[in-house]
Design goal:
Elements lengths: L1 H51 L1
């Protein structure tokens, strides 16, 4: 009976860890996308300014 409880506990902890990892990676991807779009925006703005000169 104890082994079943331990298995269930380990499984639930694993699922929770995977969920946290997925959420963390999703957050990182979101930050990366924001960073890239800002970089692109800066590049486009700079390019326009240099073209106008």
């Amino acid at each position: 009976m104890l082994s079943t409880t331990i298995v269930i506990l380990v499984l639930s902890v694993s699922v929770a860890a995977l969920g946290l990892l997925a959420a963390y990676q999703q957050h990182q991807i979101q930050r990366l996308r924001v960073f890239l779009s800002q970089l692109l925006q800066t590049y486009v703005t700079n390019k326009k300014e240099t073209d106008e000169e």
